[in-house]
TrEMBL record:
Record domain CMP/dCMP-type deaminase: where: 6-126
Organism classification: Bacteria, Bacillati, Actinomycetota, Actinomycetes, Kitasatosporales
Organism, scientific name: Streptomyces thinghirensis
Pfam families cross-referenced by the UniProt entry: dCMP_cyt_deam_1
Name of the featured protein: Nucleoside deaminase
Length: 169
Protein backbone atom coordinates (compact mmCIF):
# COMPACT_ATOMS: atom_id res chain seq x y z
CA UNK A 1 0.00 0.00 0.00
CA UNK A 2 1.53 3.29 -1.06
CA UNK A 3 -0.93 5.72 0.55
CA UNK A 4 0.98 8.01 2.82
CA UNK A 5 0.59 7.85 6.57
CA UNK A 6 -0.94 11.33 6.83
CA UNK A 7 -3.72 10.33 4.40
CA UNK A 8 -4.36 7.09 6.29
CA UNK A 9 -4.37 8.97 9.60
CA UNK A 10 -6.95 11.46 8.30
CA UNK A 11 -9.15 8.63 7.02
CA UNK A 12 -8.82 6.79 10.33
CA UNK A 13 -9.79 9.94 12.24
CA UNK A 14 -12.90 10.22 10.03
CA UNK A 15 -13.69 6.53 10.63
CA UNK A 16 -13.46 7.10 14.38
CA UNK A 17 -15.92 10.00 14.16
CA UNK A 18 -18.28 7.83 12.08
CA UNK A 19 -17.90 5.20 14.77
CA UNK A 20 -18.84 7.64 17.55
CA UNK A 21 -22.00 8.58 15.62
CA UNK A 22 -22.76 4.90 15.10
CA UNK A 23 -22.44 4.22 18.85
CA UNK A 24 -24.72 7.16 19.60
CA UNK A 25 -27.34 5.66 17.28
CA UNK A 26 -27.21 2.29 19.05
CA UNK A 27 -24.33 0.47 17.34
CA UNK A 28 -21.12 -1.04 18.62
CA UNK A 29 -17.73 0.75 18.33
CA UNK A 30 -16.39 -0.85 15.16
CA UNK A 31 -16.01 0.75 11.72
CA UNK A 32 -13.88 -0.43 8.81
CA UNK A 33 -12.94 0.98 5.41
CA UNK A 34 -10.61 0.17 2.56
CA UNK A 35 -8.04 2.40 0.92
CA UNK A 36 -6.67 1.55 -2.52
CA UNK A 37 -3.23 2.45 -3.88
CA UNK A 38 -4.81 4.97 -6.25
CA UNK A 39 -6.27 6.94 -3.31
CA UNK A 40 -9.82 5.61 -3.61
CA UNK A 41 -11.46 4.64 -0.35
CA UNK A 42 -14.66 2.77 0.40
CA UNK A 43 -17.67 3.98 2.27
CA UNK A 44 -17.28 3.02 5.91
CA UNK A 45 -18.60 -0.36 6.95
CA UNK A 46 -20.30 -0.63 10.32
CA UNK A 47 -21.06 -3.71 12.35
CA UNK A 48 -24.54 -4.91 11.31
CA UNK A 49 -24.65 -8.24 13.17
CA UNK A 50 -27.53 -7.24 15.46
CA UNK A 51 -29.55 -5.49 12.76
CA UNK A 52 -29.26 -8.22 10.15
CA UNK A 53 -28.79 -11.39 12.19
CA UNK A 54 -25.83 -12.13 9.90
CA UNK A 55 -22.98 -13.29 12.15
CA UNK A 56 -20.46 -12.31 9.45
CA UNK A 57 -21.66 -8.70 9.14
CA UNK A 58 -18.65 -7.33 11.00
CA UNK A 59 -17.60 -3.77 10.16
CA UNK A 60 -14.56 -4.89 8.19
CA UNK A 61 -16.50 -7.43 6.15
CA UNK A 62 -19.27 -4.91 5.48
CA UNK A 63 -16.57 -2.53 4.19
CA UNK A 64 -15.14 -5.27 1.96
CA UNK A 65 -18.61 -5.94 0.55
CA UNK A 66 -19.12 -2.23 -0.14
CA UNK A 67 -15.77 -2.01 -1.91
CA UNK A 68 -16.60 -4.98 -4.13
CA UNK A 69 -20.01 -3.48 -5.03
CA UNK A 70 -18.40 -0.14 -5.85
CA UNK A 71 -15.33 -1.30 -7.79
CA UNK A 72 -15.38 -5.07 -8.19
CA UNK A 73 -13.25 -7.70 -6.51
CA UNK A 74 -10.08 -6.19 -7.93
CA UNK A 75 -10.59 -3.24 -5.55
CA UNK A 76 -9.52 -5.47 -2.68
CA UNK A 77 -6.19 -6.54 -4.15
CA UNK A 78 -3.38 -4.65 -2.44
CA UNK A 79 -5.71 -2.38 -0.46
CA UNK A 80 -5.23 -1.33 3.14
CA UNK A 81 -7.98 -2.13 5.63
CA UNK A 82 -8.49 0.55 8.28
CA UNK A 83 -10.41 -0.50 11.40
CA UNK A 84 -11.37 1.44 14.50
CA UNK A 85 -10.81 -1.73 16.55
CA UNK A 86 -8.28 -4.40 15.63
CA UNK A 87 -10.02 -6.99 13.45
CA UNK A 88 -11.10 -10.28 14.96
CA UNK A 89 -9.86 -13.65 13.68
CA UNK A 90 -12.70 -13.95 11.15
CA UNK A 91 -12.04 -10.51 9.68
CA UNK A 92 -8.29 -11.10 9.40
CA UNK A 93 -8.94 -14.39 7.59
CA UNK A 94 -11.45 -12.89 5.15
CA UNK A 95 -9.20 -9.91 4.45
CA UNK A 96 -6.17 -12.17 3.86
CA UNK A 97 -8.16 -14.49 1.59
CA UNK A 98 -9.22 -11.55 -0.59
CA UNK A 99 -5.85 -9.91 -1.16
CA UNK A 100 -5.82 -7.13 1.41
CA UNK A 101 -2.18 -6.03 1.70
CA UNK A 102 -2.18 -4.27 5.07
CA UNK A 103 -4.28 -3.68 8.17
CA UNK A 104 -4.08 -0.59 10.37
CA UNK A 105 -6.20 -0.14 13.49
CA UNK A 106 -6.91 2.67 15.96
CA UNK A 107 -7.44 0.44 19.02
CA UNK A 108 -5.73 -2.92 19.52
CA UNK A 109 -7.40 -6.13 20.70
CA UNK A 110 -6.16 -5.80 24.28
CA UNK A 111 -7.49 -2.26 24.61
CA UNK A 112 -10.84 -3.29 23.08
CA UNK A 113 -10.98 -6.10 25.66
CA UNK A 114 -10.30 -3.65 28.48
CA UNK A 115 -13.30 -1.65 27.26
CA UNK A 116 -15.62 -4.67 27.24
CA UNK A 117 -15.15 -6.18 23.78
CA UNK A 118 -12.99 -9.24 24.31
CA UNK A 119 -12.74 -11.31 21.15
CA UNK A 120 -9.13 -12.42 21.69
CA UNK A 121 -9.96 -16.12 22.22
CA UNK A 122 -10.65 -16.47 18.49
CA UNK A 123 -7.05 -15.62 17.62
CA UNK A 124 -5.66 -18.72 19.33
CA UNK A 125 -8.40 -21.02 18.04
CA UNK A 126 -7.84 -19.92 14.44
CA UNK A 127 -4.05 -19.43 14.73
CA UNK A 128 -4.66 -15.91 13.44
CA UNK A 129 -1.30 -14.56 14.56
CA UNK A 130 0.36 -16.93 12.09
CA UNK A 131 -1.33 -15.19 9.16
CA UNK A 132 1.18 -12.84 7.51
CA UNK A 133 -1.53 -10.14 7.32
CA UNK A 134 -2.19 -10.30 11.07
CA UNK A 135 1.51 -10.47 11.88
CA UNK A 136 2.19 -7.29 9.92
CA UNK A 137 -0.91 -5.36 11.09
CA UNK A 138 0.01 -2.15 12.85
CA UNK A 139 -1.64 0.42 15.08
CA UNK A 140 -2.56 3.75 13.56
CA UNK A 141 -3.37 5.81 16.62
CA UNK A 142 -5.51 8.88 16.24
CA UNK A 143 -6.33 11.50 18.84
CA UNK A 144 -9.89 10.30 19.53
CA UNK A 145 -9.30 6.62 18.86
CA UNK A 146 -10.81 5.51 22.17
CA UNK A 147 -13.80 7.86 21.92
CA UNK A 148 -16.22 5.27 20.46
CA UNK A 149 -15.42 2.79 23.24
CA UNK A 150 -15.72 5.46 25.94
CA UNK A 151 -19.02 6.64 24.48
CA UNK A 152 -20.34 3.08 24.28
CA UNK A 153 -19.53 2.50 27.94
CA UNK A 154 -21.12 5.84 28.91
CA UNK A 155 -24.34 4.92 27.10
CA UNK A 156 -24.47 1.36 28.46
CA UNK A 157 -23.01 1.79 31.93
CA UNK A 158 -26.17 0.53 33.68
CA UNK A 159 -26.52 -2.62 31.63
CA UNK A 160 -22.89 -3.14 30.62
CA UNK A 161 -21.75 -6.70 30.16
CA UNK A 162 -18.50 -7.85 28.61
CA UNK A 163 -18.87 -8.91 25.00
CA UNK A 164 -16.80 -12.00 24.34
CA UNK A 165 -18.09 -13.08 20.96
CA UNK A 166 -16.00 -12.58 17.83
CA UNK A 167 -19.16 -11.16 16.23
CA UNK A 168 -18.57 -7.82 17.95
CA UNK A 169 -16.08 -6.37 15.46
Amino acid sequence: MSADTSRLTALMADAVETCVRRVESGGVPFVGLLVADDGWFSDPGVNLVDETGDPTAHAEIVALRKAVRARGRAALQGATLLATGEPCALCYRVAAAHGIAAVRFAVDRDTAAAWGFDYRAGYAVDATDRLPLAATARPLPVERGLAPFVRYLDLHRDDFTTHSSPTTT
